[in-house]
Write a structure and sequence with these properties.
heterodimer, A: about 210 residues, alpha+beta, Chemotaxis protein chec, eight-stranded antiparallel beta sheet, 7 helices, B: about 160 residues, 60s Ribosomal Protein L30, Chain: A, five-stranded mixed beta sheet, 10 strands, CheC (chain A), hydrolase activity (chain A), CheZ_family_phosphatases (chain A), CheC-like_sf (chain A)
Chain lengths: ~210, ~160
């Protein structure tokens, strides 16, 4: 049933979901830029509908070592938020915050806390925009951190989705700083049952 | 080296005959199950994501429907049940807040895989499971060797 909805979304539905990405990520990019005191740009969000088996590949190399911050979204339309950064981007970000050289082979506890906090700030501003659009009261969990294979991070983030769907719907935005030294993916992963709730809240008549 | 490795993606499986190499990359909380017929040198590898297929979804995604399916397909390729042994890897907790997305699915997957293999009378002869890191599994059907690669532990042979 849920797979039916995912696979039968109209262009209007997709545009509305993209708009969530646009406003949510725009809000998050502003918060990010203020926090770092530098310019952060974002790409036009994409709404990806794909078989679960393809999800581990969406950020590039499945075996590449990346940093992932996962937050659970709780409330009327549960889901997850995953923030993925390359090692170089993470080092660059941490360098801006701590003014120290970063050893990417082993992040310190303080560095991990700083990265989690970035995940918190971004997700918080994204969700507050989403809440304004939908009238929901979504809140985020404590962030989880992982520094490992992209495929392992992505696949493990899809568990709630995989429980009831063979397909994933992801609202993905890419963040970039002016000098291309920071490149990150911000991915909103609605649980399958949340999709119709989000669309209804945006004024669509979904069965 | 022998032929190009056959990729097994999440929620999928593949079967190979010696000297094929089957590979699944980026096992996090998912579990890779390599089943080997050591006399006919036929191997099957599946990348399962969850323990139980409650809603009739893609069989290869789940331990309870995927493992029997893999065994059946291996038998169709000439493998014999009594020759089969298994090696398993994955089922980790990837995120530092302890349980991935609050579901503790890594441990549930490992438990389910053990139970299904026991039901099917297939012994587990090698494993690298649990803990907190991602793994890649490379299964050589020539001799049944399984190589586990991870950023934390490097290379390990099962």
């Amino acid at each position: 049933m849920t797979d039916n909805l995912i696979n039968n979304l109209t262009d209007d539905h997709k545009d509305a979901l993209k708009e969530i990405g646009n406003i949510g990520a725009g809000n998050a990019a502003t918060a990010f830029a203020q926090f770092l005191n530098c310019k952060i740009e974002m790409t036009v969000p994409s709404v990806e509908i794909l078989p679960l088996s393809e999800v581990p590949e969406i950020t590039g190399g499945v075996e590449d070592r990346v940093v992932g911050i996962l937050l659970k979204v709780m409330g009327e339309a549960p889901g997850s938020i995953l923030f993925v950064l390359s090692e170089e981007s993470t080092a660059h970000l941490l360098n801006i915050i701590t003014q120290q050289d970063i050893d990417v082979s082993r992040f310190s506890e303080v560095e991990i806390s700083a990265i989690k906090e970035i995940g918190n700030i971004l997700s918080g501003s994204y969700l507050s925009a989403l809440n304004k659009m939908t009238g929901f009261n979504l809140v985020q969990s404590v962030p989880g951190f992982s520094h490992d294979m992209a495929g392992a991070i992505l696949s493990s983030s899809m568990i709630p989705l995989g429980e009831s769907s063979d397909y994933a719907l992801l609202i993905e935005t890419k963040f970039l700083d002016g000098g291309n030294e920071i490149e990150g993916y911000f991915i909103l992963i609605p649980d399958p049952g949340s999709l119709d709730k989000i669309l209804k809240a945006l004024g669509f008549d979904v069965k | 080296m022998s032929s190009t490795p056959i990729r097994v993606r999440m929620a999928e499986f593949a079967i190979g005959k010696s000297p094929d190499i089957l590979v699944t990359i980026g096992l996090g909380s998912c579990v890779g199950v390599a089943i080997y017929d050591r006399y006919n040198n036929i191997g099957g590898l599946i990348h399962i994501m969850l323990p139980e297929n409650k809603k009739g979804l893609k069989p290869a995604k789940y331990a309870d429907t995927g493992i029997p399916l893999l065994i059946k397909k291996m038998e169709e390729e000439g493998a014999k049940r009594r020759n089969m042994v298994a090696k398993i890897a994955g089922g980790s907790h990837m995120f530092s807040n302890g349980d991935d997305n609050g579901l503790n699915v890594g441990s549930r997957n490992i438990k389910a895989v053990r139970e299904i293999l026991a039901e099917q009378n297939i012994d587990i002869v090698g494993e690298d499971v649990g803990k907190t890191y991602g793994r890649t599994m490379e299964f050589h059907t020539e001799d049944g060797k399984v190589i586990i690669k991870s950023y934390k532990m490097g290379k390990k042979i099962l």
